[in-house]
Amino acid sequence: MEPAGMANSWGSLLQEQQQLEELAQQAVDRALAEGVLLRTPQEPSSSDVVSYAPFTLFPSLVPGALLEQAYAVQMDFNLLVDAVSQNAAFLERTLSSTIKRDTFTARLFDIHKQVLEEGIAQTVFLGLNRSDYMFQRNADGSPALKQIEINTISASFGGLASRTPAVHRHVLSVLGKTKEAAKILSNNPSKGLALGIAKAWELYGSAKALVLLIAQEKERNIFDQRAIENELLARNIHVIRRRFEDVSEKGSLDQDRKLFVDGQEIAVVYFRDGYMPSQYNLQNWGARLLLERSCAVKCPDIATQLAGTKKVQQELSRVGVLEALLPGQPEAVARLRATFAGLYSLDMGGEGDQAIAEALAAPSRFVLKPQREGGGNNLYGEEMTQALERLKDSEERASYILMEKIEPEPFGNCLLRPGSPVRVSQCISELGIFGVYVRQGKTLVMNRHVGHLLRTKAIEHADGGVAAGVAVLDNPYPA
Ligand code: ADP
Ligand code: MG
Description:
Layout: H1 17-34, E1 37-39, E2 50-52, E3 55-56, E4 60-62, H2 64-72, H3 74-85, H4 88-101, H5 103-118, E5 124-137, E6 143-151, H6 158-161, H7 165-174, H8 178-182, H9 189-204, E7 210-214, H10 222-234, E8 239-242, H11 244-250, E9 251-253, E10 259-261, E11 264-271, H12 282-293, E12 297-299, H13 302-307, H14 310-316, H15 321-325, H16 330-338, E13 343-345, H17 350-361, E14 366-370, H18 381-391, E15 400-404, E16 411-416, E17 424-440, E18 443-458, E19 472-474, E20 476-478
Parallel strand pairs: 4-20, 7-8, 7-11, 11-12
Antiparallel strand pairs: 1-2, 3-16, 5-6, 5-17, 9-10, 10-11, 13-15, 14-15, 16-17, 17-18, 18-19
Helix pairs in contact: 1-7, 4-5, 5-12, 9-10, 11-12
The protein binds adenosine-5'-diphosphate and magnesium ion.
The site of adenosine-5'-diphosphate has 21 residues, from strand 5, strand 6, strand 14 and strand 15.
């Protein structure tokens, strides 16, 4: 690679329109052949007609040292999430102002309280998470790894990310760039995620019990989920897919709080639904409570979902909090803190007032985040300013946090999407690392990183992931 670095990674290749179009056709056909697939927006409940998941024509440069740093801190993040999920006092304190104003978080918290009062029946805990980062451009031009968020529920694209390296190797091979093709890292998060589920299933200890995948009615990203299901089936672990509605109608607990659905015992509940308000009605909330009360391994259990809220992320960045949650682990604390961007509470009081004043004075340096997942919820620029003006004297502001805006250095790449012309865009990337841990009682029996996801989007979009139609799948090209 030319030392010019991030800005012009594939340099002259991006100049030749005809070559780009031919390459794109080859890349798309290879993506389809590899199973880099999504259902279509028109037919989100059927696999009769499918298309390719959007992806970049070329892999994108990622500094090798930052990739290593992100991998190295993943086990620390696993420990941290697990510690937060077990610390009811910390969760209660941290979320107390937020749940007064945010009904979604409040409902999750209610279930958490109910389960604690009844006593937790679950003894095996499984975390499948994905910690996401961007590469902040420092004043001296060097890039730094900064965490955007950690996803503790329904962290997706581990399946499709296992299939994209072959596509980028293909593109580089077509160009005769054999050495470069060999630098694309192999990646198999779906296998690692399945290993975590398999371990939890084994520790649950009932050979006939099943894995229950809580699925959405309309699921475009089914092939991503199937990749994990297929890995489990290869280990003789059977998965059933059901909606919250099905659980509500056909689910029950026995006197030991074992979970049964359609008369079959469930060892592990894997949520690929239930992370946003629109996914719940009264019936679904009832089903969620039933699942949480059971002794089945929930991935995640309700406390671990709460540990992934933006409010918790902000609170973790406060002086002394990591030290209290991970006592005697100063090296882990230092690795974690090095990835934190500026995070600010908007709770009523002087600290929140000051954060708001700073954001209003320099809106381009901040992002306003509500307690939501799934992309498209954050506010930037003029919209953020208006929201802050409206919220500033209201307790409602406590349901948001303010975050430093990360400004990576843009580079050129082509974002390939069904129905869109092939053209070069100025882009930025977000790196995710998948983490898996399993705990039995107080004993951690698995803690590992299991692969990565690179997503790339055009710079004109402030927010949004692949499912939101903004970012596309990519691979890191270690530089
Ligand atoms: P969600 O839970 O909706 O995925 P995120 O915090 O991941 O929320 O934000 C969604 C998207 O917004 C990210 O994928 C990223 O593109 C952008 N984003 C979020 N936080 C920042 C930030 N601090 N700086 C720059 N971009 C951000
Ligand atoms: Mg995100």
